[in-house]
């Protein structure tokens, strides 16, 4: 994957060890990192540095994450991923209502956070990503085009989003619930077997007859394995 030069991520958390862990990992991935330990500093830094992505903890002294999110979104187009210590629907709804774009429950895996950051960048700042190359896949978000083994795939918009999500989360088991949330959206009210239908279509177009590329893990979900 190409370095992410020119993409700034702001980390906001009052726990120094979490800031250090995320800063090291995201800097290694090529992002420019700025940090804040409270809501007031986060609002000031957002004004000064205009980050594309903000990782914002909910529970902080002074101005909490909810209020910081609301005030930042009044003036900035940044993608905000909120961190919460509990999987509380009420907190989730509140954050999304105030302008948050996504959420993660602590503890979380770094790979999942990175995947969510990339999803926000694809949705809000695709011009910053250019082409992404993962094994035999070449993803060009500006053209909404995916090449597999140098051949352009004929994909519907939903197939494009699903395959992109699978490729950028290569090696990670993705449940139907996660796929529905991230590809179809939180408001999707249909049956979850729609995921099976689209996975089957992608396998046909990729020539994956033996399911070695997109694997099914019974009771868990799907995982894309690169050669």
TrEMBL record:
Tell me the Gene3D superfamilies matching this sequence: 3.40.50.2300, 6.10.250.690, Winged helix-like DNA-binding domain superfamily/Winged helix DNA-binding domain
Q: Which InterPro entries match?
A: CheY-like_superfamily, OmpR/PhoB-type_DNA-bd, Sig_transdc_resp-reg_receiver, WalR-like, WH-like_DNA-bd_sf
Domain annotation OmpR/PhoB-type: ranges: 129-226
Task: Tell me yes or no: is DNA-binding among this UniProt entry's keywords.
Answer: yes
Positions carrying 4-aspartylphosphate: 57
Q: Which keywords, in A-to-Z order, does the entry hold?
A: DNA-binding, Phosphoprotein, Transcription, Transcription regulation, Two-component regulatory system
| Record-level Gene Ontology MF annotations | phosphorelay response regulator activity; transcription cis-regulatory region binding
Biological processes, Gene Ontology terms: regulation of DNA-templated transcription
**Domain (Response regulatory): residue spans on this chain:** 8-121
| Regions recorded as binding DNA | 129-226
Q: Does the keyword DNA-binding apply?
A: yes
A Pfam family cross-referenced in the UniProt record is: Trans_reg_C
Q: Which residues form a coiled coil?
A: none
Q: Which domain of life is it from?
A: Bacteria
- Cellular compartments per GO CC: cytosol; protein-DNA complex
- Quote the protein name from its UniProt record: DNA-binding response regulator
Q: Which organism is it from?
A: Paenibacillus nasutitermitis
């Amino acid at each position: 994957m190409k370095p992410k030069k020119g993409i700034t991520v702001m980390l906001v958390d009052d726990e120094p060890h979490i800031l250090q862990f995320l800063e090291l990992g995201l800097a290694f991935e090529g992002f420019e990192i700025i940090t804040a330990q409270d809501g007031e500093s986060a609002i000031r830094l957002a004004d000064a540095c205009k980050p594309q992505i903000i990782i914002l903890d909910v529970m902080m002294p002074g101005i909490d994450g909810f209020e910081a999110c609301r005030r930042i979104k009044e003036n900035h187009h940044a993608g905000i991923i909120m961190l919460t210590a509990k999987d509380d629907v009420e907190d989730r709804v509140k954050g999304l209502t105030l302008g948050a774009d996504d959420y993660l429950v602590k503890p979380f895996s770094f790979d999942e956070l990175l995947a969510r950051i990339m999803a926000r960048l694809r949705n809000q700042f695709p011009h910053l990503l250019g082409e992404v190359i993962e094994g035999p896949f070449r993803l060009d978000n500006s053209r909404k085009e995916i090449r597999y083994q140098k051949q352009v795939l004929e994909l519907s918009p939903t197939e494009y989003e699903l395959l992109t999500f699978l490729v950028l989360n290569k090696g990670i088991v993705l449940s139907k619930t996660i796929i529905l949330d991230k590809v179809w959206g939180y408001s999707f009210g249909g049956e979850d077997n729609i995921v099976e239908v689209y996975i089957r279509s992608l396998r046909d177009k990729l020539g994956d007859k033996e399911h070695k590329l997109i694997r099914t893990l019974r009771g868990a979900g799907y995982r894309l394995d690169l050669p």
